[in-house]
Amino acid sequence: MNAPLLDVRNVTMRFGGIVANRNVSFSVARGSVTALIGPNGAGKTTMFNCITGFYRASEGQILLNGPAGQQDIGTLITRPVTGGSHLVTRAGIARTFQNIRLFKEMSVVENLLVAQHLVTANNLVSGVFRTPAFRRAEREAVDRAYHWLGEMNLIDDANRLAGELPYGRQRRLEIARAMCTGPRLICLDEPAAGLNPSETHELSEVIQRLCKQHGQTVLVIEHDMGLVMRISDHVVVLDHGEVISDGRPEHVANDPAVIAAYLGVSEEEVEA
Amino acid sequence: METNRILTLAKQALLTFTVSLILFAPISGLVLEGFGFRNELVRAVLLAALVAVGRVVLSVVGMTALGRKLAGSAARNGGGVIVMTGNEKSPVLILALLFAAGLALPFFADKYFLGIAILALIYCLLGLGLNIVVGLAGLLDLGFVAFYAVGAYLLALGYQYLGIGFWSALIIAPFLAGLCGMILAFPVLKMHGDYLAIVTLGFGEIIRLVLNNWLEFTGGPNGASVPPPTVLGLEFTRTAKQGGVPLHDYFGIAYSADYKFWFIYLVLFLVVCLVIYAVERLRVMPLGRMWEALREDEIACRSLGVNHVFTKLTAFMLGASTGGLAGVFFAVHQGFVNPTSFTFFESALILAIVVLGGLGSTVGVIAAALVLTILPELLRDFAEYRVLIFGVLMVAMMIWKPRGLVRVRRPAFFPSTAPRGDTAPLSVSPEVAR
Ligand SMILES: Nc1ncnc2c1ncn2[C@@H]1O[C@H](COP(=O)(O)OP(=O)(O)OP(=O)(O)O)[C@@H](O)[C@H]1O
Ligand SMILES: [Mg+2]
């Protein structure tokens, strides 16, 4: 059980001539909060897209250690005919997006029900005739949706259109939706972007609760350093697609290479 | 202030007049006569003046309080989707009344009206089928008529070559049409949505051309005849032709050609009711929800583990199946099929039904199907203007009601036990509030 949940090994991602990630390696320990930080354009979202199966990494391996043994994300998405990023989610990696992607014209509960399509009864016949099994599965799904709405403080908005919610709530709803897939690892792409300080504070409590109470492993991209230092157990810093620092938050905060990357100091000065 | 307003109006009128003059002058101001042309510019000027006056009247009405209220209410209805509260009254009574009225219709309607009713129901079926594809799953299908043709020709040719009757065709048609849909759509669904529109457009034309040109097999433009329906070995013809007993002999009543149409109407009506029920159920089932989620955001769907290709495929196949079903009824009602019934115009008409009905709203689609098939019959004298009226309707819809005539209402869901920290008397029913 000591093997890390996610193991990123020497991943390089190229778009034509652009190298968005070069030889990136890090690992995510079970039950921890790992933060991926770095200046704009450092390649954080690209790394996320590789991990969640939206891109196929040009080189390297991304391994997920689950009960089904070790699975390689790359082979999941290139499997013929049935392969695709949806298999990565089914293997246990859920994500949110930097620019919110909710089903805006569906109700909040429906957003969460779509996420549970693997546990509800999808059979056409059972649904049309409302068999007891269908009703039970549906009831459990609705209850689970309400459970996560409760965790995210969204109960009052359950039967509203997702697109009508205020921005901060949409962010939390996206996290709730990802949690409804029952993931082993949840990847949050800038969950605090656009939130005011009190909403950010609430968010940090939500993430900590996920981790402490539900044993959820979290990988988060974030620019808000206060939030990162408060919640994370482990920080990985990317700059120009490369890992420049990796370790505990205090270690990273005092790493001269990180300070240089953020403040734009030239390499020579750091060396000096 | 007043002079200012009058000045704006005058400016507007002048602009409208000029633009419409430019438009009308060549179209109705010049009349071709052999190789030369006659000048009828007065007519064009009159038309342009008419348009300008209309524009001014519209503006003046818009300035009054009443006009503003009207415009305001039109704009407010524009927001397309609402979530139900769970406290709506159940429409069971109205539905039961409608169902009874539908069943009783043949006993009141004359043969002509019954024919229109059958046609309207066929278009309902087509609209419901295409609504699954376009309205729910958001896939643009421009060749829906192909599946309609598959169903119709299945009965005609199946009878001719294999001796398939009405009932067998009714059961086989959805599967065959669904299979065609699958073969057609699977290769393109992996790609972006626009490709599907082009491929289906092509497929619709291919089917029509094949039917038209494969003389030995399909009968080409001469079409193929379709057997009249039978029920439990009873036939609706004057003398038995398919090895059964004529209905009127069996019951010892006088022969009437109407019985056949009564029968078709009743079966069709029941099938339409079943399809409506199934579609309404689909909207609160995981599959239907996934279709709508795919329409909203495909990338988010993939991030939730939805297999977008297979999910779209199911929508496409179910839509095609419904189209095939409609085809069987069309064939048996006409007693004869030929390729001219399956042109692109037909596809466009079905698409118009779905768009007018509000992309996803079942009630809207049914209403639109009834209106678009019954109205042209009532306005027989204006038959030539049918397409023009469609066009005007569509443009008007896109301006004032882009989300269709009927608002889409989303179901509300409640937990099986009242949520903690919330003492509001929530309905305890875990079932969907309908
Ligand atoms: N699909 C793509 N095609 C080509 N280049 C891309 C693509 N996606 C990302 N890039 C490039 O890769 C680099 C890294 O982008 P990425 O979105 O991963 O940055 P980021 O670290 O998430 O930045 P931010 O903090 O602004 O979100 C950028 O230079 C970007 O232009
Ligand atoms: Mg990013």
CATH class of the largest domain in chain A: Alpha Beta
If you average the pLDDT of chain A, what whole number results? 87
Strand content of chain A: 15-25%
Low-confidence stretches of chain B: 419-434
| Separate helix tally of chain B | 17
Tell me the total number of β-strands of chain A: 10
N- and C-termini, Cα separation of chain A: 43 Å
Spatial strand order of the main sheet of chain B? 5-6-7
Average pLDDT, all residues of chain B: 82
Structure, explained:
The complex is a heterodimer of chains A (272) and B (434). Chain A is an alpha/beta fold. Chain A has helices at residues 44-51, 73-78, 85-91, 108-115, 124-128, 132-151, 167-179, 197-214, 225-231, 249-253, 256-263, 267-271, and strands at 6-15, 18-28, 33-37, 59-66, 69-72, 93-95, 185-189, 217-221, 234-239, 242-247. Chain A is 40% helix and 23% strand. In chain A, the strands form two sheets. In chain A, strands 6-7-8-3-9-10 form a six-stranded mixed β-sheet, with helices on both faces. Chain B has two domains: 2-63, no CATH class; 99-405, no CATH class. In chain B, helix 1 packs antiparallel against helix 2 (41-63) and helix 11 (258-282) packs antiparallel against helix 14. Helices cover 67% and strands 6% of the residues of chain B. In chain B, the strands form four sheets. A three-stranded mixed β-sheet of chain B has the order 5-6-7. A two-stranded antiparallel sheet of chain B has the order 1-2. Chain B has a two-stranded parallel sheet with strand order 3-9. Mean pLDDT of chain B is 82; it is low at 419-434. Chain B is globular. Chain B has 434 residues and is mainly alpha-helical. Magnesium ion (MG) is lined by residues 44-45, 98 of chain A.
Short description:
The complex is a heterodimer of chains A (272) and B (434). Chain A has 272 residues and is α/β, with parallel strands linked by helices. In chain A, 40% of the residues lie in helices and 23% in strands.
